[in-house]
Structure formats: C-alpha cells, structure tokens
C-alpha cells in the first residue's frame, strides 16, 4: 500500500471540510492541558507542595524565574474555561489531577476541597457533553514522597496505585478514559538524568530505576482500577518520536538505534511485550534498574488504549550538535523541527512492531512567538502545524492504524516547565497580566474544522445511499 505522507495531503487538508471527511464520525477531537501548567492556587484549600513547586524555587531552574503559583488561574476560572472549550466545538478534554491537591502528602489523608475542584470540573464538562479524559500523573509528585526518595523508591509505585484507586473510586464512572502516567521517559530522563526538570536529579542509575518504578506504578494502578470493576478505558501516555540517523555512517546509525531504544522500545517493549530491550540493558550495564520477580507481568497487562504525544522527530549523530543538524530546517519556538510525516511513520512503525491497542494522539501542537495585535493573534504557522499533523494522522488511519482520537496541545498558553511562560503552546492566548483568554486564529480554525468534522457528510450518510464514493 502506498502511504501518503502528511505534506502530500496538505492541499485538501487546508479546507476544514476536506480534512474532516477523512475521519469517522466517532473520532474523538479534544484539547489537552495539565494541572500544574494551568491551575495556579498552589497554596490554596489544603494542597500540598509538589516537586515542581520546590523545583521552581531553585535559582536558575526556570528560564524566566517564574512559578506555578498563579499560572492561568484555572482553579478559579474553571467554569469559564470549560465554556471556552465548548465554544470551540471541542468534544473532549484531557486534563490531569494534581496528586498533592487531593492527597497533600502522597499517602494518608485525602483532601476533600481538592476532590471538590475536580468534581466540579468533571460536572461542568459533562453538562456540556464534553468527554473528560483524566490523567493521573502529569509530573507533580507530592514533595513529601520525594523526601522519601520519590520515583527512585519502589514504595512510590505502591502509593501511586492507592491514589489511582481513590480517584477511580470517586470519578471513574464519569470519565471517558483514565491515563496513568504522562510521558515516563520525560519524568525519568529529564527529571533524574539530565536534571532539567523536577526533581532535578542527575544520575542515570536513578533515572532508569525511576523509569521502572513509573512503569510498575502504572501496572499496579491498572490492577487496582480493574479490580474495582471499572469499565472506563485505561491506558498510559508516551512521548514518542522516530529517530533518524543524521548520516548513513555506521556510528550514526548505531546511535539512532540506541536512542530509539531508550526513548521508544524501553517503554513499548516493557508495556506491550513484557521485557526491556536487550541492547538497551547492555548499554545500561550497572545502571540497569533493580526489578523484582513478576514486575514485568504487572507492567505488561492489557491496555485499553495507548496515548501518544508527538511533537517532532529526532536526529542522531555521534559528533554533530543538534543545532547544526537543524540549521535551515523549519523549527518551532522550542527549536523542534516541524515534521508531520514523522507522526505517520511513528504510528505505522508501532502498528507493525507491536500488538497495538487503540491509539489516541493525546498531545500534538507547537509553540510560536505569538503576538497579540489589536485583539487578534495571527498564528498561521500553528494552523498549518495542526492541519499537517491531523492530515498525518489521517494518513496513518488510512494505512490501517487504529487511531481513535486527537488532542491539541494546548487549550491555553501555560507554564511550559523549565521554559516558564516564555513559550506559548495554546490555541488560546493568555494575557497573564489580566488573565484574559483570547482565542488565536488556530482556535478559530480548529472550531470550524470541528464543526465540519461533526457534520454528517454524504460519504458518511447513515442510510448509506451515497456511501459508494470511497
Ligand atoms: C509534553 C508535556 C506537556 C507540554 C508539551 C509541550 O512533553 O507532556 O506538558 O509541556 O510537552
């Protein structure tokens, strides 16, 4: 089968209707956020400190020396923000629960006002027919658990399963899905090896141990949620990118293979095959994680879905810095190459190599240096990014991959981790001084696209009268 790449489909993709017609009526269209990046109110209603609150206090850790204390003030604006989602025709919302808001110490007492906030959010969504997709862990570990060793400790995986069980017990039957961990690679590698993210540790041994405990926590959480008889689809969210060797020199090819092992196969082999890849274990040597008998079975139990966060592809070179490799290419404000065809390639590869459960694209989007001029943000580059990546998803579906939904990252400009508020990923602009939300051109494009996607087209006529054109 010839696979059309995203860019090839672009001409039709420019028109909302043409692109929308490539998706089935049941396809889930959403926007995504995470708790720490938007909520603010970090000191309110009994919330405990998270590792990100503490990391923000470390001099030099955050580019603009900012914190999550106010962020988008979403905690106080939840109703208006849900109405904003609704006004954009968006049918699904992926958000995360801040663990320290509902269990300040990460074990022991639950915090009722914290649960009340999420209860209100879920109700507000359901009232408008917006499907709530909840992520349990989007990086804000209770600091109290970090003081006991955080993800380096096996016990944190057990505490996570308790927390998952409590969230499932309270909200499970009102949710469209539950994702356990968001991007374990980022938590393990950027949080514990390079140290550019919280908790800022710099040990490869700790990082691989953390990755194992994150996966174990995921598995234990799934067991606990299933044991309650919950029917809500359960899964995990991985950040994934194809890695291409920068040249065809054997050293670059070998590096690409190893980088791919560390980023993709470490997680997908563990989750979908019940083993860690042998070449990566060899490379890790003494830094291999300590595991207990039975761990891999817990980690690899069936998933109802897998979430894929996709932003860019990676280039691997043994001697050339990334900036040099990327010179002259089209980049976002993060310095990430714009590569929609990488998403199609990634999905086809996962589909080929693994017994893949249904896929949701749980994050996809781009930061650009947006400017608010006369009340408008003309973010043509983001519109194009969304169009080409949505077309890339359609390409993958047409080639046989079971993709069920797409969530744009992000609803709002927000706290972009170590970049603070300096990078804007929202389809809605946030004026942080006034907390005003101003939909960018991309939000209006997405709104119109979703109107077309929701509209029954002749090809999808339920009566089937015209359904011969495909
Ligand atoms: C992903 C994170 C998300 C956001 C985007 C840009 O790695 O899951 O919170 O920061 O990157």
Walk me through the structure.
By secondary structure, the protein is an alpha/beta fold. 42% of the residues lie in helices and 13% in strands. The chain has 18 helices and twelve strands. It has helices at 10-13, 16-20, 35-38, 51-56, 74-87, 99-102, 112-127, 143-146, 154-171, 184-192, 204-227, 250-273, 278-284, 295-299, 322-326, 340-353, 380-398, 441-454; strands spanning 28-32, 92-96, 131-137, 177-182, 234-239, 243-245, 305-309, 314-316, 359-363, 403-409, 428-431, 436-439. The strands form three sheets. It has an eight-stranded parallel beta barrel, surrounded by six helices. It has a two-stranded parallel ribbon with strand order 6-8. Strands 11-12 form a two-stranded antiparallel ribbon. The longest helix is centred in the middle third of the chain and has 24 residues, at 204-227. It is globular and about 55 Å long. The protein binds beta-D-fucopyranose. Beta-D-fucopyranose is lined by residues 34, 37, 182-183, 186, 239, 309, 363, 409, 416-417, 425.
Computed over alpha carbons, the radius of gyration is 21 Å
Overall average residue pLDDT: 94
Number of helices: 18
Give the DSSP E fraction (strand runs of 2 or more residues).
Answer: 5-15%
Total count of strands: 12
Largest sheet: 8 strands, parallel, barrel
- Overall geometry: globular
Bound molecules: beta-D-fucopyranose
End-to-end distance: 16 Å
Low-confidence stretches: 1-14, 459-470
Q: How do the strands of the widest beta sheet line up side by side?
A: 1-2-3-4-5-7-9-10
Secondary structure: helix percent: 40-55%
- Class from helix and strand fractions: alpha/beta
Order of helices and strands: HHEHHHEHHEHHEHHEEHHHEEHHEHEEEH
């Amino acid at each position: 089968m010839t696979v059309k790449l995203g860019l090839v489909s672009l001409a039709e993709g420019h028109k909302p209707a043409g692109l929308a017609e490539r998706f089935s009526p049941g396809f889930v269209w959403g926007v995504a956020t995470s708790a720490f990046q938007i909520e603010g109110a970090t000191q309110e209603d009994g919330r405990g400190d998270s590792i990100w609150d503490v990391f923000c206090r470390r001099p030099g850790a955050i580019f603009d020396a900012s914190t999550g204390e106010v962020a988008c003030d979403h905690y106080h604006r939840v109703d208006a923000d849900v109405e904003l989602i609704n006004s954009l025709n968006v049918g699904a919302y992926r958000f995360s629960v801040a663990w320290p808001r509902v269990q300040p110490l990460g074990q022991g007492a639950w915090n009722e006002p914290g649960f009340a906030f999420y209860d209100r959010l879920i109700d507000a969504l359901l009232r408008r027919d917006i499907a709530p997709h909840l992520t349990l862990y989007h990086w804000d570990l209770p600091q109290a658990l970090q003081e006991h060793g955080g993800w380096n400790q096996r016990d944190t995986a057990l505490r996570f399963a308790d927390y998952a069980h409590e969230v499932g017990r309270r909200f499970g039957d009102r949710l469209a899905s539950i994702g356990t961990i968001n991007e374990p690679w980022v938590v393990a590698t950027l949080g514990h090896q390079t140290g550019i993210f919280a908790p800022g540790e710099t040990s490869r041994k700790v990082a691989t141990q953390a990755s194992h405990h994150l996966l174990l926590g995921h598995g234990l959480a799934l067991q606990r949620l299933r044991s309650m008889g919950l029917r809500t689809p359960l899964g995990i969210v991985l950040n994934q990118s194809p890695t291409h060797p920068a040249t065809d020199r054997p050293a670059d090819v070998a590096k690409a293979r190893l980088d791919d092992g560390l980023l993709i196969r470490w997680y997908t082999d563990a989750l979908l095959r019940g083993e860690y890849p042998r070449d990566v274990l060899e490379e890790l040597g003494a830094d291999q994680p300590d595991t207990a008998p039975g761990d891999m079975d817990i980690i690899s139990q069936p998933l109802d879905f897998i979430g894929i966060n996709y932003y860019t592809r990676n280039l691997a070179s043994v001697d050339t810095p990334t900036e040099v490799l990327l010179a002259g290419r089209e980049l976002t404000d993060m310095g990430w190459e714009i590569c929609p065809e990488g998403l199609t390639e990634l999905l086809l590869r996962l589909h080929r190599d693994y017994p893949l459960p249904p896929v949701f694209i749980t994050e996809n989007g781009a930061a650009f240096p947006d400017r608010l001029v006369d009340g408008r943000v003309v973010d043509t580059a983001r519109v194009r990014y969304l169009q080409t990546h949505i077309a890339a998803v359609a390409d993958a579906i047409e080639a046989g991959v079971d993709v069920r939904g797409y969530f744009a990252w992000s609803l709002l400009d927000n706290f972009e981790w170590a970049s603070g508020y300096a990078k804007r990923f929202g389809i809605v602009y946030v004026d942080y001084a006034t907390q005003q939300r101003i939909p960018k051109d991309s939000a209006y494009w997405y709104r119109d696209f979703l109107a077309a996607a929701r509209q029954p087209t002749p090809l999808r006529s339920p009566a089937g009268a015209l359904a011969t054109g495909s």
